[in-house]
Amino acid sequence: MGPLRVHIDAGDADPEETDQLTRQFRTELLGLDVIDANLAADGPGPANAKGDPVTIGTIVVTLANSTALVGVCQLARGWVNRKRGRRVVVKDGDRSLELAEASPEQQQQLIDAFLEEPRKGS
User: Fold this and answer.
1) Contact in structure between 111 and 78 (CB atoms under 8 Å)
2) pLDDT band at residue 50, thresholds of 50, 70 and 90?
3) Is a pLDDT exceeding 60 seen at residue 117?
4) CA separation (Å) from 116 to 24, 81, 83, 121?
5) Mind spelling out the 3-state secondary structure of the chain?
6) Based on the structure, what is the number of domains in the chain?
7) Confidence class of residue 54 from pLDDT cuts 50, 70 and 90?
8) I want to staple 33 with a disulfide (CB 3.0 to 4.6 A). Which of 3, 14, 64, 99 is the partner?
């Protein structure tokens, strides 16, 4: 199982707030059964920039096992439901899950369909 890409969209949040929320989400991910969760790099930055450039809102997650994917999906659902206007996209290889405002039943149906969908090549 390759790494996941998790992208959070905090609606009307500015880039600084989105960065803060991304880092908080990363901390929550690290509480799950994951090997690592890193802010996604976005290629080379400006010539005078210090540090690694990152894609605001995107985290690359390495799961400890396939069951950890369920925890990531549930965390994403909880995060979306904390505040109106939020959205999370979880990409696992060629499949993706997008959670936004919806009923709990609709969100669970989306999660179930995502988890049941086989990855190409597996």
Assistant:
1) no
2) very low
3) yes
4) 28, 23, 28, 15
5) CCCEEEEEECCCCCHHHHHHHHHHHHHHHHCCCEEEEEEEECCCCCCCCCCCCEEEEEEEEEECCCCHHHHHHHHHHHHHHHCCCCEEEEEECCEEEEECCCCHHHHHHHHHHHHHCCCCCC
6) 1
7) low
8) 64
Residue 63 in any domain: the answer is: yes
Q: Is the pLDDT of residue 91 over 90?
A: yes
Neighbours of 2 (CB within 10 A): 10
What local confidence, expressed as pLDDT, does residue 41 receive?
81
CA dist., res. 103 & res. 108, Å (int): 9
Q: Rounded to whole angstroms, how far apart are CA atoms 115 and 122?
A: 13
Query: Structure pTM?
Result: 0.86
